[in-house]
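Progress narrative, Year 2. Work on D(1)-like dopamine receptor from Actinia tenebrosa advanced from sequence curation to structure prediction during this period.
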Amino acid sequence: MASTSNQNISNVQCPITIDFEPKNITNLSASVFPTWICLVVINVVTSPPTVLINSLVIWTVLENKQLRSNSYYLVVAILSLSDLLIGLVVQPLFVSLLICIINQCTYICELTMSCVMLEVLCSALTAVTTAIISLERYLYIEHPLYYQTSVTSKKLMIAIAVSWVLLGTVLPASRFLVNDSYWARQLPVILTIGLSFVVILFCVTKIHLTARRQMRAIAAQQEPVVQQSKIKEYKRIFTLGLIVLASVACLCPILVLKIVGAVKGNWSDDFRYISQGIYVTFFHLQSLINPIIYSLRLSDIRTGVAKRLCCNRH
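Result:
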């Protein structure tokens, strides 16, 4: 009777699932389990530094009144908050889910639902927040008069708060749609990340061209005081460019595979079992790469993070 009951439970599909049914894995090749174990190790190793360095970036910005009053650094702190959630919540859930799938434990369905919803939400939050940073820099460089009169830290916080609330409401709800279509389940994520990347690439391309042109003009003028302030400002722009490159490297595999999977329909079993864990891990790694870029490229962040690391050691 017990075995019959367990078999009936395993045949029930989760209302929210990944690219394969985690309670009914079949035809696994010899490469699947070692790949999952490798992904578990990578996420276990990178989760603590992700939490630590993002916490230090947020602490540095919030404790310093000058940084806290700067719109750019304030949005950086918010992006670090979304990255912090990846290391603090999402990566431990992802590790638990993989271990649970390997051992076919009782709580696969609950872990899958929690992990999928948070993965979808955090990837969208990261993309949208990066788009907002790009728009802020675009207006600052391309439309300075409008920026000075219309863009404030308060308005940026309201825009981010509204976007986070909307994403937190719409994206999880879309996963509960009673529809077996792959497109129906993936379309909200594709649209959110895809549109965000269009905004990001447009803004970053424009401001990089303008920044390089203005830097050449400043160098020709040979005015040290102007050079110092302008070059510091342009470093923020080039830092944003590095963040975008990291985002493209880490998030584009998700977008491409989602689109190809939706068009093609069915993957081979091995690819379905392995692919999602790999590109999700790439997304997790971005949450560690972002604060490292801030700390290396932005002197104010670098000084604050180094100071707090030294204080923690003592």
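The mean pLDDT is 77. The chain has one domain: 31-302.
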